[in-house]
């Protein structure tokens, strides 16, 4: 092994990590410091686990946290598979990448409670308008890639959307019945896992076709 070339290779890898991971992470920490200095927000409120800050048991928000994990997994799998299959299956890649970005958007909304809190109470944007925007994005993605979706196992995707729709219906029309939270959040959680299943299956098939064609 050529030690000089190996050291050069390792520094090249480290440079990429520095540019794409460490510097952005450092900038986020600078943002935390700015919020502390500008708005007197305690840094621990931004850096520590919410249950630790609030003094709550570890299981508080368990299902919600699991949902966020699977949103993230759906986004990662979709974007990764889309980038891998871009040269051999452009239609599949386009659908996966756009869906991955949309999954990441839904992750942020779920994690930060954007449509239920920030948009509605801080920016005074009605919750219905935000949900309509999300629906429009989904319809645009699915309509644009409909020729690719139809040959896929789209009943899985439809099943996921049905659970999301049921969750929204409970939140809108049945918010005062016993067990409303379990119905709303439970159906949403099932929808997220089904969403993950659809895109994982699709991503696997895209990567498999890419490998078999090389």
Task: Describe, in short, the structure shown.
With 214 residues, the chain is mainly α.
Structural features, described:
By secondary structure, the chain is mainly α. The chain has two domains: 1-47; 57-212, no CATH class. It has ten helices and no strands. The protein has helices spanning 3-39, 43-47, 50-54, 62-84, 90-112, 114-122, 127-144, 146-149, 154-173, 180-212. The protein is globular.
Write the layout of secondary structure elements.
Blueprint: H1 3-39, H2 43-47, H3 50-54, H4 62-84, H5 90-112, H6 114-122, H7 127-144, H8 146-149, H9 154-173, H10 180-212
Helix pairs in contact: 4-5, 4-10, 5-6, 5-7, 6-7, 9-10
